[in-house]
Protein backbone atom coordinates (compact mmCIF):
# COMPACT_ATOMS: atom_id res chain seq x y z
CA UNK A 1 0.00 0.00 0.00
CA UNK A 2 2.92 2.37 -0.42
CA UNK A 3 3.38 2.65 3.30
CA UNK A 4 7.07 2.94 2.77
CA UNK A 5 6.87 5.78 0.32
CA UNK A 6 7.74 9.16 1.65
CA UNK A 7 5.07 10.79 -0.55
CA UNK A 8 2.43 10.71 2.20
CA UNK A 9 4.35 12.94 4.56
CA UNK A 10 2.15 15.53 6.19
CA UNK A 11 2.39 19.09 4.98
CA UNK A 12 0.82 22.03 6.78
CA UNK A 13 0.84 25.51 5.25
CA UNK A 14 3.32 27.84 6.97
CA UNK A 15 5.00 24.99 8.82
CA UNK A 16 8.25 23.35 7.83
CA UNK A 17 9.33 19.81 8.50
CA UNK A 18 12.52 19.85 10.55
CA UNK A 19 12.92 16.20 11.27
CA UNK A 20 11.31 12.80 10.66
CA UNK A 21 12.33 9.98 12.94
CA UNK A 22 11.20 6.57 14.06
CA UNK A 23 11.19 6.35 17.81
CA UNK A 24 9.43 4.66 20.72
CA UNK A 25 6.92 6.80 22.56
CA UNK A 26 4.76 5.38 25.38
CA UNK A 27 5.88 1.90 24.37
CA UNK A 28 4.63 2.37 20.83
CA UNK A 29 6.97 2.58 17.88
CA UNK A 30 6.07 5.78 16.10
CA UNK A 31 7.24 8.05 13.35
CA UNK A 32 7.59 11.53 14.77
CA UNK A 33 7.38 14.50 12.44
CA UNK A 34 8.91 17.59 13.99
CA UNK A 35 7.35 20.68 12.46
CA UNK A 36 7.96 24.34 13.14
CA UNK A 37 6.08 27.48 12.20
CA UNK A 38 7.84 29.51 9.51
CA UNK A 39 5.13 31.99 8.59
CA UNK A 40 4.67 35.63 9.46
CA UNK A 41 4.51 36.82 13.04
CA UNK A 42 2.56 40.04 13.63
CA UNK A 43 4.23 42.87 15.54
CA UNK A 44 1.06 44.68 16.54
CA UNK A 45 -2.09 43.46 18.28
CA UNK A 46 -4.84 42.41 15.83
CA UNK A 47 -7.37 43.65 18.36
CA UNK A 48 -6.12 47.06 19.53
CA UNK A 49 -3.01 47.74 17.47
CA UNK A 50 -0.58 47.95 20.41
CA UNK A 51 2.80 46.28 20.38
CA UNK A 52 2.90 42.51 20.90
CA UNK A 53 5.33 40.77 23.23
CA UNK A 54 6.82 37.27 23.20
CA UNK A 55 4.64 34.83 25.12
CA UNK A 56 6.62 31.59 24.97
CA UNK A 57 6.53 28.80 22.45
CA UNK A 58 4.06 25.92 22.32
CA UNK A 59 4.31 22.40 20.99
CA UNK A 60 1.21 20.34 20.28
CA UNK A 61 1.18 16.74 19.12
CA UNK A 62 -1.26 15.52 16.52
CA UNK A 63 -1.92 11.94 15.42
CA UNK A 64 -1.40 11.55 11.70
CA UNK A 65 -1.98 8.74 9.23
CA UNK A 66 0.48 5.86 9.36
CA UNK A 67 3.86 6.46 7.80
CA UNK A 68 6.63 4.00 6.93
CA UNK A 69 4.37 1.28 8.33
CA UNK A 70 4.06 2.81 11.79
CA UNK A 71 1.71 5.14 13.61
CA UNK A 72 2.80 8.71 13.06
CA UNK A 73 2.59 11.80 15.16
CA UNK A 74 3.33 15.40 14.26
CA UNK A 75 4.93 17.60 16.91
CA UNK A 76 4.02 21.08 15.85
CA UNK A 77 5.78 24.06 17.44
CA UNK A 78 4.83 27.69 17.10
CA UNK A 79 5.50 30.99 18.84
CA UNK A 80 2.92 33.02 20.75
CA UNK A 81 2.57 36.75 21.25
CA UNK A 82 0.65 38.69 23.85
CA UNK A 83 -0.73 42.19 24.00
CA UNK A 84 -0.10 43.79 27.35
CA UNK A 85 -2.87 46.32 26.88
CA UNK A 86 -5.88 44.17 26.03
CA UNK A 87 -4.58 40.73 26.88
CA UNK A 88 -5.07 39.26 23.41
CA UNK A 89 -2.87 36.27 22.72
CA UNK A 90 -1.86 35.63 19.13
CA UNK A 91 -0.85 32.25 17.79
CA UNK A 92 -0.84 30.99 14.20
CA UNK A 93 -3.70 29.01 12.76
CA UNK A 94 -2.74 25.44 12.13
CA UNK A 95 -4.57 24.32 9.02
CA UNK A 96 -5.62 20.74 8.28
CA UNK A 97 -5.72 19.60 11.89
CA UNK A 98 -8.54 18.93 14.29
CA UNK A 99 -7.35 20.50 17.53
CA UNK A 100 -10.26 19.19 19.54
CA UNK A 101 -9.16 15.63 18.92
CA UNK A 102 -5.40 16.18 18.56
CA UNK A 103 -5.50 14.59 15.15
CA UNK A 104 -4.81 15.76 11.62
CA UNK A 105 -7.87 16.11 9.41
CA UNK A 106 -6.76 13.35 7.10
CA UNK A 107 -6.15 10.99 10.03
CA UNK A 108 -9.53 11.98 11.47
CA UNK A 109 -11.23 10.88 8.24
CA UNK A 110 -9.24 7.67 8.00
CA UNK A 111 -9.79 6.68 11.61
CA UNK A 112 -13.51 7.32 11.28
CA UNK A 113 -13.68 5.32 8.05
CA UNK A 114 -11.76 2.40 9.48
CA UNK A 115 -14.03 2.40 12.52
CA UNK A 116 -17.04 1.58 10.36
CA UNK A 117 -15.76 -1.92 9.81
CA UNK A 118 -13.04 -2.52 12.36
CA UNK A 119 -13.17 -2.63 16.12
CA UNK A 120 -12.04 0.50 17.93
CA UNK A 121 -9.27 -1.60 19.48
CA UNK A 122 -7.85 -2.53 16.09
CA UNK A 123 -8.12 0.99 14.75
CA UNK A 124 -6.48 2.39 17.87
CA UNK A 125 -3.59 -0.02 17.51
CA UNK A 126 -3.00 0.95 13.91
CA UNK A 127 -2.86 4.66 14.68
CA UNK A 128 -1.11 4.44 18.04
CA UNK A 129 -4.00 5.89 20.02
CA UNK A 130 -6.33 4.61 22.76
CA UNK A 131 -9.64 2.97 21.77
CA UNK A 132 -11.67 5.72 23.42
CA UNK A 133 -10.07 8.27 21.12
CA UNK A 134 -11.00 6.18 18.08
CA UNK A 135 -14.54 5.93 19.36
CA UNK A 136 -14.77 9.67 20.06
CA UNK A 137 -13.51 10.43 16.59
CA UNK A 138 -16.05 8.09 15.06
CA UNK A 139 -18.97 9.49 17.04
CA UNK A 140 -17.92 13.01 16.15
CA UNK A 141 -17.60 12.07 12.52
CA UNK A 142 -21.06 10.49 12.28
CA UNK A 143 -22.60 13.49 13.98
CA UNK A 144 -21.02 15.77 11.41
CA UNK A 145 -21.91 13.50 8.51
CA UNK A 146 -25.36 12.85 9.90
CA UNK A 147 -26.42 16.35 8.96
CA UNK A 148 -25.42 15.82 5.35
CA UNK A 149 -26.00 12.13 4.96
CA UNK A 150 -29.74 12.02 4.60
CA UNK A 151 -31.11 9.38 2.37
CA UNK A 152 -33.99 10.03 0.04
CA UNK A 153 -37.31 9.47 1.76
CA UNK A 154 -38.59 6.13 0.43
CA UNK A 155 -41.98 5.73 -1.24
CA UNK A 156 -42.21 2.18 0.10
CA UNK A 157 -41.24 1.84 3.73
CA UNK A 158 -40.73 -1.32 5.72
CA UNK A 159 -40.75 -1.29 9.52
CA UNK A 160 -39.11 -4.01 11.51
CA UNK A 161 -38.45 -4.27 15.18
CA UNK A 162 -35.43 -5.91 16.66
CA UNK A 163 -34.17 -6.21 20.18
CA UNK A 164 -30.61 -5.48 21.06
CA UNK A 165 -29.19 -6.21 24.44
CA UNK A 166 -28.60 -3.11 26.52
CA UNK A 167 -30.20 -0.92 23.87
CA UNK A 168 -33.69 -2.39 23.90
CA UNK A 169 -36.11 -2.19 21.00
CA UNK A 170 -34.83 -0.71 17.80
CA UNK A 171 -37.05 0.06 14.83
CA UNK A 172 -35.33 -0.56 11.51
CA UNK A 173 -36.72 1.47 8.64
CA UNK A 174 -36.08 0.10 5.18
CA UNK A 175 -36.57 1.29 1.62
CA UNK A 176 -38.44 -1.66 0.17
CA UNK A 177 -38.30 -0.47 -3.39
CA UNK A 178 -34.51 -0.37 -3.46
CA UNK A 179 -33.89 -2.95 -0.72
CA UNK A 180 -31.75 -0.56 1.25
CA UNK A 181 -31.63 0.64 4.82
CA UNK A 182 -33.12 4.04 5.42
CA UNK A 183 -32.64 4.60 9.11
CA UNK A 184 -33.03 3.13 12.54
CA UNK A 185 -34.46 4.61 15.66
CA UNK A 186 -34.64 3.60 19.31
CA UNK A 187 -38.00 2.34 20.50
CA UNK A 188 -41.12 1.38 18.65
CA UNK A 189 -44.12 2.67 20.53
CA UNK A 190 -46.65 4.82 18.76
CA UNK A 191 -45.45 8.11 20.22
CA UNK A 192 -41.79 7.49 19.33
CA UNK A 193 -42.61 6.50 15.78
CA UNK A 194 -45.10 9.30 15.19
CA UNK A 195 -42.45 11.76 16.33
CA UNK A 196 -39.84 10.15 14.15
CA UNK A 197 -41.94 10.26 11.00
CA UNK A 198 -43.24 13.73 11.71
CA UNK A 199 -39.65 14.94 11.72
CA UNK A 200 -38.59 12.98 8.67
CA UNK A 201 -38.12 15.17 5.59
CA UNK A 202 -40.83 14.82 2.92
CA UNK A 203 -43.19 12.49 4.79
CA UNK A 204 -45.71 13.03 2.00
CA UNK A 205 -43.52 10.96 -0.29
CA UNK A 206 -44.31 7.76 1.56
CA UNK A 207 -47.16 5.91 -0.15
CA UNK A 208 -46.88 2.42 1.35
CA UNK A 209 -45.81 1.13 4.75
CA UNK A 210 -45.28 -2.59 5.22
CA UNK A 211 -45.18 -4.00 8.77
CA UNK A 212 -46.20 -6.83 11.02
CA UNK A 213 -49.57 -6.86 12.76
CA UNK A 214 -48.93 -4.20 15.36
CA UNK A 215 -52.04 -2.08 15.84
CA UNK A 216 -50.31 1.12 17.05
CA UNK A 217 -48.83 1.59 13.58
CA UNK A 218 -52.29 2.57 12.41
CA UNK A 219 -52.33 5.86 14.29
CA UNK A 220 -48.71 6.66 13.49
CA UNK A 221 -49.31 6.25 9.78
CA UNK A 222 -52.51 8.27 9.89
CA UNK A 223 -50.93 11.14 11.82
CA UNK A 224 -47.46 11.39 10.34
CA UNK A 225 -47.64 9.91 6.85
CA UNK A 226 -50.61 11.55 5.15
CA UNK A 227 -50.36 9.75 1.82
CA UNK A 228 -49.40 6.32 3.07
CA UNK A 229 -51.38 3.11 3.05
CA UNK A 230 -50.67 0.34 5.49
CA UNK A 231 -50.05 -3.20 4.33
CA UNK A 232 -49.38 -6.25 6.47
CA UNK A 233 -46.35 -8.20 5.40
CA UNK A 234 -47.68 -11.42 3.87
CA UNK A 235 -44.44 -13.06 4.80
CA UNK A 236 -45.13 -12.42 8.43
CA UNK A 237 -48.69 -13.65 8.10
CA UNK A 238 -47.91 -16.96 6.39
CA UNK A 239 -45.36 -17.68 9.10
CA UNK A 240 -48.40 -18.04 11.39
CA UNK A 241 -49.70 -20.85 9.18
CA UNK A 242 -46.50 -22.75 9.91
CA UNK A 243 -46.96 -22.12 13.62
CA UNK A 244 -50.55 -23.34 13.53
CA UNK A 245 -49.38 -26.48 11.77
CA UNK A 246 -46.61 -26.96 14.34
CA UNK A 247 -49.16 -26.70 17.14
CA UNK A 248 -51.26 -29.44 15.55
CA UNK A 249 -48.17 -31.59 15.04
CA UNK A 250 -47.16 -31.29 18.68
CA UNK A 251 -50.64 -32.23 19.79
CA UNK A 252 -50.60 -35.36 17.61
CA UNK A 253 -47.05 -36.16 18.69
CA UNK A 254 -48.19 -36.44 22.30
CA UNK A 255 -50.26 -39.51 21.54
CA UNK A 256 -47.58 -41.38 19.61
CA UNK A 257 -45.29 -44.19 20.66
CA UNK A 258 -41.63 -44.08 19.62
CA UNK A 259 -42.33 -46.79 17.09
CA UNK A 260 -45.02 -44.77 15.37
CA UNK A 261 -42.83 -41.78 14.79
CA UNK A 262 -41.66 -41.13 11.29
CA UNK A 263 -37.97 -40.40 11.42
CA UNK A 264 -36.43 -38.46 8.56
CA UNK A 265 -33.06 -36.99 7.93
CA UNK A 266 -34.04 -33.51 9.01
CA UNK A 267 -37.17 -34.53 10.86
CA UNK A 268 -40.78 -34.55 9.80
CA UNK A 269 -41.25 -31.13 11.39
CA UNK A 270 -38.88 -29.80 8.79
CA UNK A 271 -40.59 -31.64 5.95
CA UNK A 272 -43.98 -30.31 7.00
CA UNK A 273 -42.68 -26.77 6.82
CA UNK A 274 -41.32 -27.30 3.34
CA UNK A 275 -43.53 -26.04 0.53
CA UNK A 276 -45.05 -28.86 -1.47
CA UNK A 277 -43.61 -27.49 -4.70
CA UNK A 278 -40.10 -27.67 -3.28
CA UNK A 279 -40.24 -31.15 -1.82
CA UNK A 280 -37.99 -34.02 -2.75
CA UNK A 281 -39.71 -37.29 -3.69
CA UNK A 282 -38.67 -38.70 -0.32
CA UNK A 283 -40.32 -35.80 1.50
CA UNK A 284 -43.47 -36.10 -0.60
CA UNK A 285 -43.62 -39.79 0.29
CA UNK A 286 -43.51 -38.91 4.01
CA UNK A 287 -46.52 -36.65 3.62
CA UNK A 288 -48.31 -39.40 1.72
CA UNK A 289 -47.50 -41.82 4.53
CA UNK A 290 -49.16 -39.44 6.99
CA UNK A 291 -52.19 -39.12 4.76
CA UNK A 292 -52.71 -42.89 4.68
CA UNK A 293 -52.10 -43.39 8.38
CA UNK A 294 -55.10 -43.27 10.67
CA UNK A 295 -53.10 -41.72 13.47
CA UNK A 296 -51.24 -39.17 11.36
CA UNK A 297 -54.02 -38.22 8.98
CA UNK A 298 -54.75 -34.99 10.85
CA UNK A 299 -51.15 -34.03 10.39
CA UNK A 300 -51.64 -34.26 6.65
CA UNK A 301 -54.76 -32.10 6.97
CA UNK A 302 -52.76 -29.52 8.93
CA UNK A 303 -50.14 -29.63 6.20
CA UNK A 304 -52.81 -29.01 3.58
CA UNK A 305 -54.25 -26.11 5.56
CA UNK A 306 -50.78 -24.59 5.75
CA UNK A 307 -50.21 -25.09 2.03
CA UNK A 308 -53.64 -23.69 1.12
CA UNK A 309 -52.98 -20.65 3.26
CA UNK A 310 -49.71 -19.94 1.48
CA UNK A 311 -51.53 -20.46 -1.81
CA UNK A 312 -53.97 -17.64 -1.05
CA UNK A 313 -51.01 -15.50 -2.05
CA UNK A 314 -49.24 -17.81 -4.44
CA UNK A 315 -52.17 -18.67 -6.65
CA UNK A 316 -53.89 -15.30 -6.65
CA UNK A 317 -51.10 -12.90 -7.33
CA UNK A 318 -53.07 -10.66 -9.66
CA UNK A 319 -56.58 -10.65 -8.24
CA UNK A 320 -57.54 -9.27 -4.86
CA UNK A 321 -61.07 -10.56 -5.28
CA UNK A 322 -59.89 -14.09 -5.95
CA UNK A 323 -57.55 -13.91 -2.98
CA UNK A 324 -60.36 -12.81 -0.69
CA UNK A 325 -62.49 -15.64 -2.05
CA UNK A 326 -59.62 -18.08 -1.53
CA UNK A 327 -59.31 -16.96 2.08
CA UNK A 328 -63.02 -17.35 2.67
CA UNK A 329 -62.94 -20.86 1.17
CA UNK A 330 -59.90 -21.69 3.25
CA UNK A 331 -61.61 -20.58 6.44
CA UNK A 332 -64.62 -22.74 5.66
CA UNK A 333 -62.35 -25.72 4.98
CA UNK A 334 -60.99 -25.84 8.54
CA UNK A 335 -62.42 -29.03 10.09
CA UNK A 336 -64.54 -28.57 13.22
CA UNK A 337 -62.23 -30.79 15.27
CA UNK A 338 -60.72 -28.92 18.25
CA UNK A 339 -57.22 -29.83 17.24
CA UNK A 340 -57.45 -27.35 14.33
CA UNK A 341 -58.20 -24.43 16.64
CA UNK A 342 -54.83 -22.77 15.87
CA UNK A 343 -55.99 -22.36 12.27
CA UNK A 344 -59.23 -20.74 13.42
CA UNK A 345 -57.12 -18.33 15.47
CA UNK A 346 -55.19 -17.52 12.32
CA UNK A 347 -58.45 -16.85 10.48
CA UNK A 348 -59.46 -14.50 13.29
CA UNK A 349 -56.17 -12.66 12.93
CA UNK A 350 -56.83 -12.22 9.22
CA UNK A 351 -60.23 -10.71 10.02
CA UNK A 352 -58.65 -8.36 12.55
CA UNK A 353 -56.33 -6.95 9.91
CA UNK A 354 -58.44 -7.71 6.87
CA UNK A 355 -58.10 -4.37 5.12
CA UNK A 356 -54.34 -4.12 5.71
CA UNK A 357 -53.71 -7.70 4.65
CA UNK A 358 -55.61 -7.40 1.39
CA UNK A 359 -54.12 -3.99 0.67
CA UNK A 360 -51.21 -6.10 -0.53
CA UNK A 361 -52.98 -6.62 -3.85
CA UNK A 362 -53.33 -2.87 -4.41
CA UNK A 363 -49.64 -2.18 -3.95
CA UNK A 364 -47.76 -1.66 -7.24
CA UNK A 365 -44.69 -3.58 -6.06
CA UNK A 366 -44.53 -7.05 -4.52
CA UNK A 367 -44.08 -5.50 -1.11
CA UNK A 368 -42.43 -7.48 1.66
CA UNK A 369 -39.99 -7.15 4.52
CA UNK A 370 -39.01 -10.78 4.08
CA UNK A 371 -35.42 -10.06 3.29
CA UNK A 372 -34.96 -7.87 6.33
CA UNK A 373 -36.67 -10.39 8.59
CA UNK A 374 -34.12 -12.96 7.55
CA UNK A 375 -31.18 -10.70 8.12
CA UNK A 376 -32.72 -9.52 11.36
CA UNK A 377 -32.39 -13.05 12.62
CA UNK A 378 -28.71 -12.79 12.10
CA UNK A 379 -28.69 -9.39 13.75
CA UNK A 380 -30.45 -10.84 16.78
CA UNK A 381 -27.84 -13.53 17.00
CA UNK A 382 -25.11 -10.95 16.77
CA UNK A 383 -26.70 -8.88 19.45
CA UNK A 384 -26.62 -11.86 21.75
CA UNK A 385 -22.91 -12.14 21.19
CA UNK A 386 -22.28 -8.43 21.19
CA UNK A 387 -21.09 -6.60 24.24
CA UNK A 388 -23.30 -3.78 23.09
CA UNK A 389 -22.25 -0.56 21.48
CA UNK A 390 -24.08 2.68 21.99
CA UNK A 391 -27.04 3.18 19.69
CA UNK A 392 -25.30 6.07 17.99
CA UNK A 393 -22.25 3.96 17.16
CA UNK A 394 -24.39 1.08 15.96
CA UNK A 395 -26.46 3.38 13.78
CA UNK A 396 -23.38 5.09 12.39
CA UNK A 397 -21.65 1.86 11.56
CA UNK A 398 -24.75 0.53 9.92
CA UNK A 399 -25.80 3.50 7.83
CA UNK A 400 -22.53 5.19 7.02
CA UNK A 401 -20.82 2.37 5.25
CA UNK A 402 -17.95 3.04 2.94
CA UNK A 403 -19.92 2.89 -0.29
CA UNK A 404 -22.36 5.42 1.08
CA UNK A 405 -19.67 7.78 2.19
CA UNK A 406 -18.07 7.54 -1.24
CA UNK A 407 -21.40 8.18 -2.90
CA UNK A 408 -21.95 11.10 -0.58
CA UNK A 409 -18.65 12.69 -1.56
CA UNK A 410 -19.27 12.26 -5.28
CA UNK A 411 -22.98 12.66 -5.87
CA UNK A 412 -24.53 14.06 -2.76
CA UNK A 413 -26.91 11.17 -1.84
CA UNK A 414 -29.42 9.04 -2.57
CA UNK A 415 -30.06 5.64 -1.11
CA UNK A 416 -28.92 3.93 2.03
CA UNK A 417 -26.73 0.84 2.22
CA UNK A 418 -28.10 -2.21 0.44
CA UNK A 419 -29.29 -4.97 2.73
CA UNK A 420 -27.20 -8.10 2.38
CA UNK A 421 -29.05 -11.37 1.93
CA UNK A 422 -26.66 -13.07 4.26
CA UNK A 423 -24.50 -11.71 6.98
CA UNK A 424 -25.10 -9.00 9.51
CA UNK A 425 -26.77 -5.73 8.68
CA UNK A 426 -25.43 -4.13 11.80
CA UNK A 427 -21.82 -3.87 12.78
CA UNK A 428 -20.81 -4.55 16.32
CA UNK A 429 -17.35 -4.07 17.73
CA UNK A 430 -16.97 -7.79 18.14
CA UNK A 431 -17.42 -8.57 14.49
CA UNK A 432 -14.13 -8.72 12.76
CA UNK A 433 -13.10 -9.36 9.21
CA UNK A 434 -16.36 -8.30 7.62
CA UNK A 435 -16.01 -8.22 3.89
CA UNK A 436 -16.67 -5.10 1.93
CA UNK A 437 -20.24 -4.75 0.99
CA UNK A 438 -21.15 -5.42 -2.59
CA UNK A 439 -24.29 -4.15 -4.24
CA UNK A 440 -26.55 -7.00 -5.19
CA UNK A 441 -27.89 -7.29 -8.69
CA UNK A 442 -31.57 -7.60 -9.44
CA UNK A 443 -31.36 -11.27 -10.36
CA UNK A 444 -30.86 -12.32 -6.75
CA UNK A 445 -34.39 -11.36 -5.78
CA UNK A 446 -35.27 -12.75 -2.43
CA UNK A 447 -37.88 -15.48 -2.14
CA UNK A 448 -39.71 -14.30 0.93
CA UNK A 449 -41.58 -17.56 1.44
CA UNK A 450 -38.45 -19.57 2.01
CA UNK A 451 -37.58 -17.94 5.31
CA UNK A 452 -39.69 -18.22 8.41
CA UNK A 453 -39.33 -15.49 11.03
CA UNK A 454 -40.93 -17.67 13.72
CA UNK A 455 -39.11 -20.88 12.94
CA UNK A 456 -39.38 -23.18 15.94
CA UNK A 457 -40.89 -20.60 18.32
CA UNK A 458 -43.77 -21.06 20.76
CA UNK A 459 -46.56 -18.53 21.06
CA UNK A 460 -46.56 -16.46 24.28
CA UNK A 461 -43.42 -18.22 25.47
CA UNK A 462 -41.05 -17.08 22.76
CA UNK A 463 -43.02 -14.40 20.99
CA UNK A 464 -46.23 -12.42 21.13
CA UNK A 465 -48.60 -13.87 18.51
CA UNK A 466 -50.59 -10.65 18.34
CA UNK A 467 -47.73 -8.36 17.50
CA UNK A 468 -44.98 -10.64 16.30
CA UNK A 469 -42.63 -9.36 18.96
CA UNK A 470 -39.93 -11.93 19.69
CA UNK A 471 -38.95 -12.24 23.34
CA UNK A 472 -35.41 -12.81 24.60
CA UNK A 473 -35.96 -16.56 25.01
CA UNK A 474 -37.15 -16.77 21.43
CA UNK A 475 -34.09 -14.96 20.21
CA UNK A 476 -31.73 -17.56 21.58
CA UNK A 477 -33.90 -20.35 20.18
CA UNK A 478 -33.69 -18.92 16.69
CA UNK A 479 -29.96 -19.39 16.75
CA UNK A 480 -30.10 -23.13 16.88
CA UNK A 481 -33.22 -23.68 14.81
CA UNK A 482 -31.76 -25.13 11.67
CA UNK A 483 -29.79 -28.02 13.12
CA UNK A 484 -32.01 -28.70 16.05
CA UNK A 485 -35.55 -29.29 14.86
CA UNK A 486 -37.49 -31.81 16.88
CA UNK A 487 -38.66 -34.72 14.76
CA UNK A 488 -41.42 -37.22 15.16
ZN1 LIG B 1 -4.30 44.49 22.24
Any descriptors?
488 residues, five-stranded mixed sheet, Nucleotidyltransferase, domain 5, 18% strand, disordered C terminus, 4 domains, 16 helices, 12 strands
Topology:
Blueprint: E1 15-25, E2 28-37, E3 52-67, E4 70-83, E5 89-90, E6 97-98, E7 103-104, H1 105-117, H2 120-127, H3 131-148, E8 156-164, E9 168-175, E10 180-186, H4 190-199, E11 208-211, H5 217-224, E12 229-232, H6 234-254, H7 268-273, H8 281-292, H9 297-314, H10 320-332, H11 341-352, H12 354-358, H13 370-385, H14 391-399, H15 402-411, H16 472-480
Parallel strand pairs: 2-4, 8-11, 11-12
Antiparallel strand pairs: 1-2, 3-4, 4-5, 6-7, 8-9, 9-10
This protein binds zinc ion.
Residues 45, 47-48, 50, 83, 85-86, 88 line the site of zinc ion (ZN).
* Tally of structural domains: 4
Secondary-structure element sequence? EEEEEEEHHHEEEHEHEHHHHHHHHHHH
CATH class of the largest domain: Alpha Beta
- The shape, in one word, is elongated
The overall average pLDDT, rounded, is 82
- Range of strand content: 15-25%
Helix content: 25-40%
Structural class by SSE content: alpha/beta
Nearest-angstrom radius of gyration? 30 Å
Description:
It contains 16 helices and twelve strands. It has helices spanning 105-117, 120-127, 131-148, 190-199, 217-224, 234-254, 268-273, 281-292, 297-314, 320-332, 341-352, 354-358, 370-385, 391-399, 402-411, 472-480; strands at residues 15-25, 28-37, 52-67, 70-83, 89-90, 97-98, 103-104, 156-164, 168-175, 180-186, 208-211, 229-232. The chain is 39% helix and 18% strand. It starts with 14 loop residues before the first strand and ends in an 8-residue tail after the last helix. With 488 residues, the protein is α/β, with parallel strands linked by helices. Residues 384-388, 429-445 and 481-488 have low confidence and may be disordered. Helix 6 (234-254) runs antiparallel to helix 11 (341-352) and helix 9 runs antiparallel to helix 10 (320-332). The strands form three sheets. Strands 1, 2, 3, 4 and 5 form a five-stranded mixed beta sheet that branches. The protein folds into four domains: 6-95, no CATH class; 111-148, no CATH class; 156-232 and 367-453, Nucleotidyltransferase, domain 5 (2-Layer Sandwich), CATH 3.30.420; 241-362, no CATH class. It is elongated.
Amino acid sequence: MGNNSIGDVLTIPHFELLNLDKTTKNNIEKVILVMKYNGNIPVTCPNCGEKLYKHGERTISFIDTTLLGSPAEAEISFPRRRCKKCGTIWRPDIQDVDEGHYVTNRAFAKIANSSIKQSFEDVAKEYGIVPTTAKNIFVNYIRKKGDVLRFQTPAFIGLDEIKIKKLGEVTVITDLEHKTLYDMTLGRNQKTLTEYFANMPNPERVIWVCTDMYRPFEKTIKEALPNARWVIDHYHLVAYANLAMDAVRKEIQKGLSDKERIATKKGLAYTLRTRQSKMTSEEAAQIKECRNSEKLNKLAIAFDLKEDFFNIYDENRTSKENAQKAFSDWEKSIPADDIFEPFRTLAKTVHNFYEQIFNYWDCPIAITNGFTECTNRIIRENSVRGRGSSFEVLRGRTLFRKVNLQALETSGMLLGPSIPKKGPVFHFEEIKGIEDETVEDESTYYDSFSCDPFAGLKAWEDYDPETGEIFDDGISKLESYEDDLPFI
